[in-house]
Amino acid sequence: MSVVAVGVWQLMLPGSRSLKEKRMVVRSLKDRIRRSFNVSVAETGHQDVWGRAEFTVALVASGRGAADSLLDGVDRLMEGESRAVIVDTRREWC
Questions:
Q1: Superfamily classification of domain 3-93
Q2: What is the pLDDT of residue 86?
Q3: Can you give the pTM of this predicted structure?
């Protein structure tokens, strides 16, 4: 049975001093997530705040284990990003 999974990451961007700097970080992260995991990703919150971002990733997988594996990979990519600090995460499955 197929599973739809959604992951949401709340991020602090301590090095961003302007919306332009923030958007460079956001664009880079979104592109890396799409390329690496072939999932849908969007900035879904804090668009006008320099030092914050919210990313939402959505995917369809063959089961919950496969979905969790993909979201774990996205989590590791986010953790490895030196320009962002994860403040909170959550996951939902349908």
A1: TT1725-like (3.30.70.1120)
A2: 98
A3: 0.93
